[in-house]
Write a structure and sequence with these properties.
Largest sheet: none
Shape: globular
Distance between the termini: 46 Å
Number of domains: 1
Helix content: over 70%
Number of strands: 0
Radius of gyration: 17 Å
Number of helices: 6
Length: 121
């Protein structure tokens, strides 16, 4: 992997973050609504075929932010439908994102336990 790929990934992810920050600063959208907007936008852009070329160009800069989560959900659903038919709509996205969802739950629990331990000490 060459240095230019790192720079492109950093810039692409940074631009997505800058857009989110501008939305927070200049609109009345809450951060939670912006998160939902980003995930939904990732799914929509994947559905119309725009996000895949962006992922190929930007790599982790496109897959790590929340739009990448929407992309993973959409790709998982596509694969699930190919493999299981219409039932793949229900399990494809969860299967594709299960590691990320599990990590979020586990690390959230660990951080909550640490915080509770700090407050009780």
């Amino acid at each position: 992997m060459n240095r230019m790929q790192y720079i492109i990934a950093f810039a692409a992810g940074g631009i997505l973050c800058v857009i989110a920050q501008v939305l927070i600063d200049k609109t009345k959208l809450t951060p939670a609504r912006i998160l939902v907007l980003y995930v939904t936008l990732g799914v929509a852009l994947t559905a119309i075929g725009v996000y895949e070329p962006f992922v190929e160009f930007a790599g982790a800069g496109a897959t790590v932010p929340l739009t990448g989560f929407g992309y993973s959900l959409a790709k998982g659903i596509e694969e699930g439908v190919e493999q299981y038919g219409w039932l793949g709509i229900f399990n494809g996205g969860l299967t594709a994102c299960s590691a990320g969802i599990a990590a979020a739950i586990i690390f959230g629990f660990i951080m909550a336990a640490i915080k509770k331990w700090q407050n009780s000490a």
